[in-house]
Amino acid sequence: MPDAHAGAAAPSVFAVAFKDAALAALVALGLAAPMLGLVTVQTQSGIELEQHWGRVAIAVAIVFAGRLLLNLTLWRPGRKKSLGYVPPKVEARLARFAKYLAPLAILGAVVMPMLPFTERYAIDLGILVLTYVMLGWGLNIVVGLAGLLDLGYVAFYAVGAYSYALLAQYFGLSFWVCLPLAGILAAFWGVILGFPVLRLRGDYLAIVTLAFGEIIRIVLLNWYWFTGGPNGISGIPRPSFFGLDFDRGDDGFAATFGLDYSPLHRIVFLYYLILALALITNFVTIRLRRLPIGRAWEALREDEIACRSLGINTVNTKLTAFALGAMFAGFAGSFFATRQGFISPESFVFMESALILAIVVLGGMGSQFGVAVAAVVMIGGFELFREFSDYRMITFGLVMVLIMIWRPRGLVSTRSPSVFLKEKKAISGSLVQEGHG
């Protein structure tokens, strides 16, 4: 007896694509309805719920059309799949171009405040971007080089900020004295976190570090008599330029150098201060990566069992990664406190850790240049979308999804090896290999 389904025609490509797009639109409807369709607004009588179903319809239509287009083009059955949209030759050219782009970027960052058309908003935005660049480079040691997933990195950022604020408030110490102390205290807490998680990895490590970050925030929130609790700490002293304050007095910065007083002097000084701190972080990280400790971090990231079999002390390797990453976060936190003049526990929530981790992942784990590019794109992009606050997080999630599809290993997926073999012609004409670190 012939099979009843033998003569049935196979579903067309369009039908399969349409069904998949409809399912994606249904999921988008479930997500967009509570996020875009229902918005709470503050009124005189209290909080009211506004309905914006037009936004939901637009979002669902975009998802349906985009998914259908992808299914009929890039994701069409039978199409040869590729690992990425950037050919290897083009990627190699971009990598060579990046060698010249990094010095140009540093030069541009140095001269940016001196340009005649530069406004204070641009300098403030540059300070914010450079702060996250420094935080990203610090977390890159833990996540990108050592391969330890840390979701509580903002805790060390908070330790650095509160260390400077409390030392300046209770002991009257200057910023230049508190800066190294804040880094040392943050590194100390990094070691404290490192000891309990020596045997953990993957998701378990992420959960513990996330809990550590929340514990630090809750302690700062409830230790009212010491940290100020939810009221925070205000009146944090500003840094000086070799003892010269940025005020209108006769012994101020402007009067000493014969300049007209301008509040922009202090902003420019803070910009160059965070630029110097970020460049020091980058320089130290690159140097450490070429040392044995840096190679041990990368070995730990690739395979911890093989790392132990080679005789590498994984305990010291993990602790140094946590301590050094925390130290740079402490430096950044100290700068954050002196720049803002006020800190509170609300400045160190989990979203800060998630944002810094997203910068490291999207930029390319282990890539210093990629982290800097990701920080500029994400922090600058957030500022561009400030007027569209309802769509900022949705756009942020969409960008992350697109980057993971287009560049799964980050914007800069290639990293310069810390150890490589180079062929060199000997005097006798034979080829020998010399190791270079």
SSE topology:
Layout lengths: L12 H25 E6 L2 E6 L1 H20 L15 H24 L8 H26 L8 H18 L3 H20 L7 H21 L1 H4 L5 E2 L18 H4 L7 H27 L1 H11 L1 H6 L4 H27 L1 E2 L6 H14 L4 H17 L7 H15 L13 E6 L5 E6 L1
Antiparallel strand pairs: 1-2, 3-4, 5-6
Helix pairs in contact: 1-2, 4-10, 4-13, 4-14, 4-15, 5-6, 5-7, 5-13, 6-13, 10-11, 10-13, 11-13, 14-15
Description:
The protein folds into 2 domains: 3-72, no CATH class; 88-431, ABC transporter involved in vitamin B12 uptake, BtuC. Strand 1 and strand 2 (46-51) form a beta hairpin. The protein is mainly alpha-helical and 437 residues long. The protein is globular, with a radius of gyration of 26 Å. A two-stranded antiparallel ribbon has the order 1-2. A two-stranded antiparallel sheet has the order 3-4. Helices cover 64% and strands 6% of the residues.
What would the average pLDDT be, to the nearest integer?
A: 81
What is the CATH class of the largest domain? Mainly Alpha
Strand content is 5-15%
Tell me the distance between the termini.
74 Å
CATH topology heading of the largest domain:
ABC transporter involved in vitamin B12 uptake, BtuC
Strand order of the largest sheet: 1-2
Total number of beta strands: 6
- Identify low-pLDDT runs: 426-437
Instruction: Give the structural class.
Output: mainly alpha
Q: Architecture of the largest domain in CATH?
A: Orthogonal Bundle
Biggest beta-sheet profile: 2 strands, antiparallel
**Overall domain count:** 2
Cα radius of gyration in angstroms:
26 Å
